[in-house]
Amino acid sequence: MLDLREYGIEMWPQDRIEAFRKALLDWYDANKRDLPWRRTSDPYAIWVSEIMLQQTRVDTVIPYYESFLHRLPTIEDLAQAPEEVLLKVWEGLGYYSRVRNMQKAAQQMMADFGGEFPKTHEEILTLKGIGPYTAGAIASIAFQLPEPAVDGNVMRVLSRLFEVDYDIGIPANRKIFQAMMEILIDPVRPGDFNQALMDLGSDIEAPVNPRPEESPVREFSASYRNGTMDKYPIKAPKKKPVPVYLKGFVIRNEKNQFLLEKNQNAGLLSGFWSFPLLETKEPFEHDLNLFQVAEELPLDNPKERFMENYQLDVHWQDSSFPTVQHIFSHRKWQIELLVGLVSDSSDLVMANRELAWVSADEFHQYPFAKPQQKMWEVFQASEY
Description:
Elements: H1 14-31, H2 43-53, H3 58-71, H4 75-80, H5 83-90, H6 97-112, H7 121-125, H8 132-143, H9 152-162, H10 174-184, H11 190-202, H12 222-226, E1 242-252, E2 258-262, E3 273-274, E4 277-279, H13 302-310, E5 315-316, E6 324-327, E7 331-341, E8 354-358, H14 370-383
Parallel strand pairs: 1-7
Antiparallel strand pairs: 1-4, 2-3, 2-8, 5-7, 6-7
């Protein structure tokens, strides 16, 4: 076991640990939120909720959670779901590798565990897309195993309780908080203990504007006692996402259908449909040099590139739209919409692309990621 004293952390004596558990759980019993995944001990449902709650707000997750379980109520249903169904139930949640990994994990359970959810922490950890936090959450909530679930909220609370002088954003430091939780976790109610710390960290002990005077465990908190709440947790600022500039092509045919393209590339937004997109150079990248004539400048004409790439003769419309912006964890897309009409859309056969002419009332049949939803909203708002 990790020696916490080597990291400047003096763990409490056993009687203080027990008093802390009681104070935290008493508060949780009186204040816990009524959430749909807290009304079940089904590990499949708890797993779905935990994966959805990664990087996503609780209020956003609730309707997705209920819809997902209605559409894919069992491990077998998830394992066998076609890609279009899989992406549709996750449409708009983002971080789509999560649901792809869930399907792979469901297929593992069908192959290795007889279609049942594994019941030990070690077995749960073998599933695709499940790391220490998610495994700990499922093991403790569904099976009442005393396994810590250490996420950012928990690390924030522990940092303030013990004035931990280690950056919670560095993955190697997670072992410190894991070791602390292995000592602190309530062996009788481990699931409630983990959820209580998460609730505390997401509300009263939030990263911005915490309310330490309302904390049920303030008498245990070194940072509250020493007036250092603003110092903890230690966390280096995130790098800003890199801007990416794109043109989004809203192309209609003579039947008032829109051109959609399926993203066939592996990785970001794979399998989703959207208006065709072309990445362009940064704005003003080619500022005119005093010694360079305009004709010598490299030209990037997105409209010409589009017509050449898609083999369509487009009549371009002179329309102006607000820039569509969407932030991923590492990229910031800025999309300028270009609108055009095609009079002859009979031939769309292209070996390297999957394309379709689709009417607006059929859009619901196609999985759209958030950037496409935003492009459509901006176009509709300006068009009508």
